[in-house]
Structure of DUF4216 domain-containing protein:
Amino acid sequence: IYLAEMRLKYPDATEEQLEQLKQNNFATWFSDYVSHCLATGHPPKDWLREIVCGPKFVAKTYPRYCTRGYAFRVLKENTVRRTVDCEVSSSSGDDVYYGNVREILEIQYPGMIGMRCIVFNCEWYDNVVGRGVSTD
């Protein structure tokens, strides 16, 4: 909905400009959108209202986290383990990024639904050939 509105409002905007608009304005637009839905008698789903209210100010940290058959562990500098499960990779198009998990946080949202979001704070390697990556 947001991108459709922005494309109508800025018909000559490039994809990069639309992405920048999203980064700068989406949170405010989203809050206004939910408020408008409530004011016009079209209440949004409960989880949308809970997101607009924002998360709790306290987050939990975990030394390890398991989800969907994968186990993640926070990198410790002085580890003596033979296996390492703190490494992660993420791909975007043709690029693949590699890094280490530095912190695992659980952010909770107040409300009846009790939504939570797991955030992995990672230290990413430099994947530029010649700088951080060597090619054989």
About this structure: The chain has a mean pLDDT of 86.
